[in-house]
Amino acid sequence: MSEAAQPVILARGLTRRFGDLVAVDQVDLQVPGQRVYGFLGPNGSGKSTTIRMLCGLLTPSEGDIEVLGLRIPAQADELRKHIGYMTQKFSLFEDLTVRENLQFMAALQSVPRARTRARIDTLIEQYHFSDRQKQLAGTLSGGQKQRLALAVAVIHEPQLLFLDEPTSAVDPESRRDFWEKLFELADAGTTLLVSTHYMDEAERCHRLAILDRGRLVGDGTPAQMTAALEGRSFVVTAKDPRRIQHALSGLPGVLSAAQIGASLRVLTDAADGASETSAQAVRERIESTVQGIDADATFKPAEPNLEDVFVAATHDGRSQREMAA
Amino acid sequence: MSWRRLWAIVIKELRQLRRDRITLAMILTIPVFQLVLFGYAINLNLRGLDAGIADQAHTSASRALVMNMLATDVIKPTARVATPQQLMTLLREGRINVGIVIPRDFERRRADGRPVAQILVDGSDTAVQSAAMQLAQVPITDSRLPDLRAPPNSTPPQGRIRVVAFYNPERRSAVNIVPGLIGVILTMTMVLFTAIAIVRERERGNMELLIATPLTRAELMVGKVLPYVIIGLLQTCVILALGVWIFAVPVRGWLPDVFMAAMLLILANLSLGLLISTRAKSQFQATQMMIFVFLPSILLSGFMFPFAGMPKAAQCLAEVLPLTHFLRLIRGVMLRGAGLWELWPDVLALLGFTAIMMTVAIAQFRKRLD
Asked: In this predicted complex, what is the ipTM?
């Protein structure tokens, strides 16, 4: 998949304002083809707004978008033939059956008449609806609804699929099944753009963009992003992690100290430049604080994970903005 | 315009409708309910008003006059008293609606051509008042009696106006109401159904899915309207059938013309409903807007009150309402036996209304979320 370097989505300076609120602020994106590209960010970070702008449902206040070589929103009508879009809220017709929903969307998406029946049969089989074809969509469980929504979104075999928090209301097992389907689609050559606020889902993406308060604060593969944090994560194990947490959270150089069971996960500030000494100083300061409270406590470096990436990215993004302001 | 996508919308609407029991029930029960309500309960011609009679003349002519009045069935005798004062008392007490006073000099007044009798009316009810006016038109000279003033066999010298009612000589309100009722019911249900059509999809989140597909605005709008045309024609059938069977309402014109007229109103109302739907933020708001259309339609179109009697401003407003034009069409076709082409100004008005509303509705609808 070396030719996948040709970007499927290109956005520059993408901005959307709702009145005084800046929902998306100067976002630059480059999404390569045939990959699962993740949008990670908390609620209200501008994930949905960005997706809606990319598929031509919202007009950007500023910025340029090119999707599948089409200028958006000017050529949004043409784009709609080639994309699938799965909304955050279940948007199929609850008073139509599984099969009727598929039939309806097959007609809207102009799946060739001769192929429609076979295509629907395949999807019903693939997405495990064989015994539920005549069930009303409104009576399906959360996981089934999401599966149906995905089946409907790919009915016309789109090149590009937008999924807006597809698994936010789904149990872990259904989520795993759902992601299997997403990788099958990516293997078959579809480009997927998935927004999520789950770290484990973000971890699965080939590439990731981190959004915070409308800003793009991180972009890269999960491996690259965690590697960049090498040396900034630590684990403190102690009898009373909460006391240590309180002591650490005010300490200069400490970005966050989060309790995980009986231990604390500590993330230190970005050592400005490559000044090894200041990073070293922060480490020593933490160690002495920890020892001062509990002599038995251990303090060890840890492998950075995506949660650290997220915390670091949102924090760095915010402090940069504060400095600019 | 892709016929396949258009058809997909129509089929989807019909499937949803089939599972929507309340709407389904509305389609049939509203016509039946309203027809029975207007046909029986709301009887605009009064019969059997309680009347008190004070005949002080006691001549054969005065008795004949009273008999003629009773023969109209508008009044029934409930009290016979001696003086007008007693009638006043009964009237005040609400025991009679109408009092008839025939003075002692009845015969002389007849000869002089002066007013021969007085009808006292409880004017607090305008319907009773107009019924009494009807009574006053009863001829005071009976053909069986010799006219005292004029030579025998001459025409009765009446200063009275004889009202000759064409097309509904029996003055049955059903004949007037049933054709109009087709319009009222179609206005009520058609506007309501489509007013909700787009808003509902927006509320349920379906719209975001639909606008992300190649579906065009015109396909969506037309597809939403078409199923209800069928429903509207179905309702027309129900009202017509019941009107003809139960109330013996005549269909003097050509039956297809009746349905053509109904079709014109259905399209006008559906396009209006669609426009409401593109403007409303919620189903509740759509219903409120629909009432803004429905009330003037009922009051100003000429369904309830005669169009001719309305002030100029109200008439102008009424000309904008589809129901006004439909009433002229349907009464013309059903009661006067006119052909639809003879009433072309109203046909054009309805077609124009539909074209404008539909265009504005399509233009108003954006395939965007902002």
From this structure: 0.84
